Amino acid sequence: MRRGTIHLLFAAAALACGAFAADQALQLHQLGRIRQAVAAANADTAADIPEARLAQAMALARAGRHDAALAIYDSLIQPGRIDALGQTARFDLGNMLLRKARASAADDAFAAQALLELAKQRYRDVLRAQPDDWDARYNLERALWLAPETQDMFGAETDDMPKELLLVKVPSLPPGDLP
Question: pTM here?
């Protein structure tokens, strides 16, 4: 090979390495901003960083300020859009609702039942987007143990309801898969 070709290849490799290093530096800078916003726990600092808002919502939920945490979680969950941050917000919101339902079960059974239903819905939303999320499956199972879904919840049986169940096989879905 000629010396000019080798120098050109070396320059291209150096340019590629430089671009990679610049990208890593940018990601490191953004992680530093997220850490500062989480450490400050300041709403103004966290306003433009979604990861910091998620951390702030988790801290508020742990502190017992459920209404403020719910508002932040709802701002992070965008209907029709499935992203990792939204999925984490749905899962954490379900966890917060489940913990709140368990804490208020002795005082107000009706409110606890409503919170359990909301938690189950959030877990189902997570599972619709990611059926292999075992944490969401486990928490949904826990919520179903606390508030099982029976036919009586949806109304009494009538004569037009089928007396036997038919097994339907869908070729593209494995049997026994959760929604």
Answer: 0.63
